[in-house]
Amino acid sequence: MGLEILIILTSLILHELAHLIVALIMGVKFLEIELLPFGGQAKLQDFTGLEPSKEICIAIAGPLCSLSISGLLYLVNLPLHPEAIPYLIKINLLLGLFNLLPALPLDGGRVFRSLLSPIMGFRKATAITANLGKMLALMLVGYSLYLLYISNYGFNYIVIGVLLYMAAYREKHLLTFAFMRYLINKQGYLGSQGFLAGEQYISKKGSLIKDILYNSKPKSYILTFVIDDDNNLIKVKTEAELIEMLLEKGPKARI
Questions:
Q1: Residue 33: is its pLDDT beyond 80?
Q2: pLDDT one-digit tens code per residue, 43-102
Q3: pLDDT, tens digit, for every residue of 181-211?
Q4: Which of 100, 130, 148, 228 has the lowest tally of Cβ within 10 angstroms?
Q5: Alpha carbon distance 136, 47 (integer Å)
């Protein structure tokens, strides 16, 4: 049992170190890493939601590391404990494959969100992948209960399923905070990039600003044409102006 725990902890640490190393290479700073049975959750000082390519590289590094370790140990005969090698191969294979599933908070979920964000926006992409995480957790718990019923085995999977559900719930629960962080970082993004692709929206006067900003996508900029009830143009609002109004007046702010 002691050897198994040591192998699991070592595999988790190596998995998270891969995230950390790639993040440092890309100039992204970590605040802390929380280890969980299915991997870990890294809290970044720098926000990567505006740059999906960075988030993909950082997220995919962990599973690739775990799968590489598993593959190398399978191919190379190392002079280690005879029971350690098969277990190392198994744990790293499971860790790598499980984390590739497209559901938050797993690494695959972060990759999937980064692929969805340019299409449907950061908020919607986060909500979808967090819900997938909750569904995956419930399926895992259900499968574990079935295993317990037929073989008295599978309690560990229940623990993992519960922790996964809690982590996915937290992602969904903190979505408003994450979205506001996204918007705050988006304010200065045009200035730092020099130019961005533009998206035009037509909005009736009095529409909720948050409904417009929910469509905000990384590396694109919203221009909103505000019209009255007779469809006459009243004003044009930039995305930065909408963000400022939302931050100042709150979620009920109207254009």
A1: no
A2: 676 666 768 899 999 999 999 999 999 999 988 877 767 778 889 999 999 999 999 999
A3: 888 888 777 777 778 888 999 999 999 999 9
A4: 228
A5: 26
Same domain, 161 and 216: no
pLDDT tens per residue, range 115-172: 999 999 999 999 999 999 999 999 999 999 998 888 888 788 898 999 999 999 998 8
Alpha helices in the chain (DSSP H): 2-25, 52-75, 84-99, 107-120, 122-151, 155-173, 175-187, 189-193, 209-213, 239-249
Burial 182-207 (b: 16+ CB within 10 A, else e): bbebbeebeeeeeebeeeebebeeee
Residue 127 lies in a domain: yes
End residue of a domain, out of 153, 187, 221: 187
Given a contact cutoff of 8 angstroms between Cβ atoms, the answer to whether 195 and 238 are in contact is: no
Using the 3D structure, point to which of 149, 165, 187 is the last residue of a domain.
187
Say if residue 102 is preceded by a cis peptide, omega within 30 of 0.
Answer: no
- Residue pair 55/48 in contact by the 8 Å Cβ criterion: yes
- Structure pTM? 0.86
Active site residues: 16
Counted domains in the chain:
3
Contact indicator for 117, 49 with CB cutoff of 8 Å = yes
Shared-domain flag, residues 137 and 67? no
Q: Is residue 157 one of the residues assigned to a domain?
A: yes
Residue 123 domain-assigned (yes or no): yes
Q: Quote the domain boundaries for residue 168.
A: 118-187
